Amino acid sequence: MGLFKEFKEFAVKGNMVDMAVGIIIGTAFNSVVDVLVKQIIMPPLSLMTDGINYADRKMVLREAVGTEGTADFVKEVSIGYGLLIETLIDFLVIGFVVFIVVKFMNRFRNKAQDPKNEKVVTPKDIELLSNLNDLMEEQNKLLRERQN
Questions:
Q1: Dihedral (C-alpha) 124, 14, 105, 41: value to the nearest 10 degrees?
Q2: 3-state secondary structure (DSSP) of residue 49
């Protein structure tokens, strides 16, 4: 029963829900980026390089020998670097979009954490800490005046 109780506390805290939402959004985002790269970015790139399909690009180390299905058939040995190129483009697109989203979110968080900004609601903990800081500065100012 202890394991079930611990799992329930974990799920109620929101960690599991946050993680599930992140995984679902990440999966959907991956599908969008996959289509973006394969259907929008790669065709013009292929056109600029005389119709090269990057996913099929490979460096053949040993040609296939014989006829497929016969006993003496030896498979081709090759290094498929084209798919790596597409995957790197996927990575760059995802990295750039995540960078833009994080930059956008940080801008909002910085505005929300500024207690002097009255346009955005400041979280209660930041507001309380700011008030404490102001009170401590005021107290230090009074103490310095008494010492002089």
A1: -170
A2: coil
